[in-house]
Amino acid sequence: xxxxxxxxxxxxxxCSVHKPNLVLxxxxxxxxxxxxxxxxxxxxxCSTCGSVVTAGAPRGRGHVGIVSEVYPSHGNLxxxxxxxxxxYLQQAIDSLHAPSGAVMLCAxxxxxxxxxxxxxxxxxxxxxxxxxxxxxxxxxxxxxxxDVRLDxxxxxxxxxxxxxxxxxxxxxxxxxxxxxxxxxxxxxAKVQRGLKKD
Length: 198
What we know:
alpha+beta
């Protein structure tokens, strides 16, 4: 992938639309104060959501415009997350352009995470509260879960009084779900790997 008229990403890192039309707005060179670390930058706009994506390429022989970094990055999920919650969360990330679907997928991911931890019965919120009572989660995490409307009943039952989620709502739900996965699975796995190295 090169810095050209269009940036060929698989998904927009903002709205997650597949094969986005990222159009070059501007390009320029930068370097450190000692003239080292020269890079060529392209600033792109997503035609779907209007957000900006920045791509950078090192300068020098053999590098001519080949992209080495993209901001923001779309991000990869850790393989330490169990398969079922991983799949739901990845689909939620890929569905940010469809906010109601993304929120429901986040709820399914959180549901699957709690089931992995043997919280099997009751509503999603009751199981979240039970996880707090048993010190699996913090009360702040439970408050965050309630704040991002993860019960998803409004979406599933097409409640006419409920407001439709926005892309910002969906991003907040994804952020919470990623943080919970990090807290419940990724960090403990890192700790265990660190202990084994000693």
